[in-house]
Amino acid sequence: MINKRWSSAVLLGLLAATTLAGPVPASADDDRAEPIAEPPRVQLVLDVSGSMRATDIDGRSRISVAQQAFGEVVDALPDETQLGIRVLGATYRGKDKQQGCLDTQQIVPVGPVDREAAKAAVATLRPTGFTPVGLALREAAKDLGTGSTARRIVLITDGEDTCAPPDPCQVARELAAQGTTLVVDTLGLAPDEKVRKQLLCIAAATGGTYTAANSANDLTDRLKQLVDRARDTYATTPAKVDGTEACPDAPLLAPGVYTDRESFSEHRWYRVPVRPGQELRASVSMALDRPVNLDYGVLLRATAADGRELVRGVDAGSGRIDVISAGLRWSAGADDETDERDADAPTPTAPAVTTVCLVVSNMFAPQPGTAKNPGMPVELTVDVVAASPTPDGPDLGRGWVLLLLLTVAGLLTGLVAGWLTRWWVATWREN
Amino acid sequence: MRTHSATLTARLAAGLALAPAALLAGVALAPAAALAAPTPIPSPGAVTVTKAGTSFLSATPVAAGQPVRVGASTGEYLYWSFPAAAGETHEINATVSLAANRSGRSTWAVEVFDGLRRRQACTAGAQTPTADASASTVAIGCTLRRVRPWAEPWSADPLPGTYYVRLTVVDVPEPDLGLPIDVDLLISTTGDADTSPEDGKLEAPLVPPANAGTVLDAVPTAAPEDSDDDGWNLDLTGWLPEAGSRWVWTTAGGMLAAVAGVVGFALTRRSARRVVR
């Protein structure tokens, strides 16, 4: 009973604390729930090459499983999502490779979906030709167009690209480097080793995912999840920025999220203005979008305009990972402020704005044959907030143990005082 | 005289034993409730989250005590974010149900990052367990450090704000990539958020901005100083110590010490009076 009452009291306290600390989660949600005018856009790219005739998924042909899955996805499509469907290898029946490798069409344009028409268009597909994956990806990116939101392509295939060049993995990397966020999720239907390697490469290059679909249920569930994800995870695209090789001419950044590309053993500089009484916060994530050697690291340093280091954030890792991140905080100390004021401000009365230089460097080593360009994706987050001063409370104590200690000390003091008084009175009487 | 002193010491002993016992009872009550909390069960009525983000920017927000159940592919990077307040200690427990017919051992990891994407240490829990080819599930756990109310900008102490959880397989035979998995995850929080205002306060929690940035053309001039401090400020809230402040605790301790002193003095006097009678 007592316990219950106490726990409810503690719960109330926690509730009060969470209400007091309310802005923390609330502001996070607010940022996320920012109204975005553009609807989420996703394009499904389906391989309809001859190999889709194979009947090895639950005893059904691959194409019929894919058609059924597409039908269910279109039925379950959220209203605001704009969906397009592109096929490859669907029409050309000949043997001429050159012509067969140009065989890709958009059968449902990206936009508000007419469910019946989309399902009918998918239902009439018959496995036919070659597998020009690279070209289809390029065209799919064009179909989605440009915009400020992230866009997703879902690639469903059962066979490796038979038309390289262009190598689909290289195409994916180029598309991702174009500055707009484009994610390619890949689905392998009963994949063999070659297909798996290729799809893994495409997924890694764009920050997408790879799934092996070995049953109709797998395929349907995963497709639905990916289309849903296009709606859930699309956010405003970070602003594209080009870091420079040195601090003085580096771009000046306001708080926000930025993307850039950085090659192996390259340094990229940025500048952030920080007013007195403000704190600089910066974090950087570098994506491992290509095969690199086992161990790697990323270093984010903040330096003053004269080159002396203020603070650094560093992280290193080993093995399989998507991004490696580091972050730092910095606020001007008393010394720094006066220094900067003397150096920069012509009038001693005006508080100076400190320009902090940020430099991103990486410790990645390319594997033999790994392409150097375009560089690896860098995501830089910059924030400038009010500085948090050092607490300077008095040397007082708190807590139950303190109360206990003081009480026992008081009690002992009282006892000693009492004893002394008694002893003194006794000796005084005797005399 | 000897008997007197014997009864006196007995009395004293009783008094000494009683006073701290009463205090101890008070002491024991408060942490008992706090200690009873850490059981990793979902909060009643919490809605199960069935999604996961794929990057820091798209991490799915979850609250402590809110269960997560999501289907995914082996090799996918799953991101969630949760808010943390000063004084809390968070524990993350995940169970991954693995696909059958795998070709080898796989190592799974849950990694936690703060709002600045700085890696956070786990103080307990199997952060990177390895599952044998025959295992059907693998359990992952991570207990984080207690969130500090304030830390120097140069330190890496955990601070209030957004935290990110990334769950993935870090070592797996290549043929096993892409196989379906099911992930159950629960973030539980313990701690009473009991922090003193004298311990400092982070002016802005570590919540990263989500908006696209803008490149400035020139260094902005400093904003004019706030004029709020000018003139007479008759607001007393800044002067009165808050509840739970060190001032309040220490003052209360001083009062208790004074009372205990009088009690101690009275204990010796009363027995002396009886002697006189």
TrEMBL record, chain B:
Keywords: Membrane, Signal, Transmembrane, Transmembrane helix. The keyword Membrane applies. Residues 1-36 form the signal peptide. The chain crosses the membrane at residues 247-267. It comes from the Bacteria. This is Peptidase. It comes from Micromonospora sonchi.
